[in-house]
Amino acid sequence: GLPYALSQAGLPFGLLLLIVVAFITDYSIVLLIRGGNLSGTNSYQSLVNSTFGFPGFLILSVLQFLYPFIAMISYNITTADTLTKVFQRIPGVGPNHIFVERHFVVLVSTILFTLPLSLYRNIEKLAKVSFLSMVLTLVILIIVIIRAASLGPQIVPTENAWAFAKWNAIQAVGVMSFAFICHHNSFLIYSSLEQPTLANWSRVTHMSVGSALILCAGFAVAGYTTFTGYTQGDIFENYCRKDNLAAVGRFCFGLSIITTFPLECCVA
Predict the structure, then answer these.
(1) Which residue from 22, 80, 113, 126 lies 20 to 30 Å from 163 (Cα-Cα)?
(2) CA-to-CA distance for 161 and 156, rounded, in angstroms?
C-alpha cells in the first residue's frame, strides 16, 4: 500500500511523511524498552500495568490480542487473493480449479506453514523465517523496480502526478504507520537478543528501522512512478494478470505474508 500512500499524499510530501513515521517508530521503540528497564518490567503488559495500573493493563491486553488477531485474518485474506492469481498461471488450472478456490488456499497454507510455525512459543525460533521474509521482500522490490523501468515510460502520468502535496495525506500516514508498527513485538525481540542491553537494542532498532525505511521508500517510489494516479491499494493489482514477472512477485508477496503470520501469533 505504500505506492498508494504516495498517490494520496504526493510524492515529495509522502516521502517526508515516511521519514517522519520511521523516526517516530525508531524513537518510540527505544523509549519502550528504556521504560521497561527503568520500571523493572520485561513485557509490554507489565510496563503498562506499572504505569497506568490494572485498567491500563486490561485495555492493552485486549488490544494486544485484537490487533494481531485482526492482522492474521487480513493476512489469510491477502494470501488467498494473491496466490489464487498466481496459480491461475499454471497450465491446466482454470477458473473452476480447486487451486483458485480461496478457502482451499487458506486451508493448505495454514496446515502446511502458518500453523506449524505458529506453534513456536519462543520468537528466536522464527529467526530463519524472518530472514526468508526479508529476502522475499528484496525480490519483490527488484521486480517492482524492473517493471518501473519497463512499464513506466509507456504509461502517461495522471494530472498533478508530481504535485508536492495532496489533501489525503492523513490517509497516507495511516498506511505508513501500519507498515512500521512493531511495538507489540518489541519486548519479545528484546528478550531474544544474545545480550539484551539498551545499547544493543538501540543499535538493532536503528539498523532495522533504517533498512526498513530504505526498502519502503524504494518500493513506494518505484511503484508510484510507474502508475502515478492509477496506483491501487495493492500494487500488484496494477499489473497484467498475464505478466509472468508480476506473477513471481505475487508469489513472493504471498509467501512473505505467510512468514509474517507467526510473528503476530506469538503476540496474540
Answers:
(1) 22
(2) 10
Alpha carbon 142 to its chain centroid, in Å, reads: 17
CA 54 to chain centre: 31
Question: Treating both helix axes as pointing N-terminal to C-terminal, what angle do 169-180 and 2-9 enclose, rounded to 10 degrees?
Answer: 150
The pTM of the whole model exceeds 0.85: no
Q: What span, in angstroms and rounded, lies between the C-alpha atoms of 202 and 31?
A: 9
Nearest to 122 by CA among 189, 214, 53: 189
Above 80 in pLDDT, residue 266? no
- Alpha carbon 145 to chain centroid, angstroms: 18
> Cell 524498552 appears where?
33
Q: What is the pLDDT of residues 16-74, one digit of tens each?
A: 999 999 999 999 999 988 888 888 888 888 888 888 888 888 998 888 888 888 888 88
Residue 193, helix vs strand vs coil: coil
Q: Which residues contact 234 (CB under 8 A, 6 or more apart)?
A: 1
Q: How many CA atoms lie within 13 Å of 259's alpha carbon, on the beta-carbon side?
A: 19
Sequence-ordered list of residues with C-beta below 8 angstroms from that of 3, at least 6 positions apart, any chain: 219, 220, 221, 222, 223, 224, 226, 227, 231, 235
Between CA 259 and CA 136 the distance in angstroms is 10
Can you tell me the distance from the alpha carbon of 250 to that of 240, in angstroms, rounded to the nearest whole number?
12
H/E run at residue 82: helix 44-87
| Cβ-contact 180, 5 below 8 angstroms | no
Apex 261 CA angle, 109 and 183, nearest 5: 175
Nearest to 65 by CA among 41, 90, 45, 93: 45
Closest C-alpha to 102, from 78, 84, 75, 114: 84
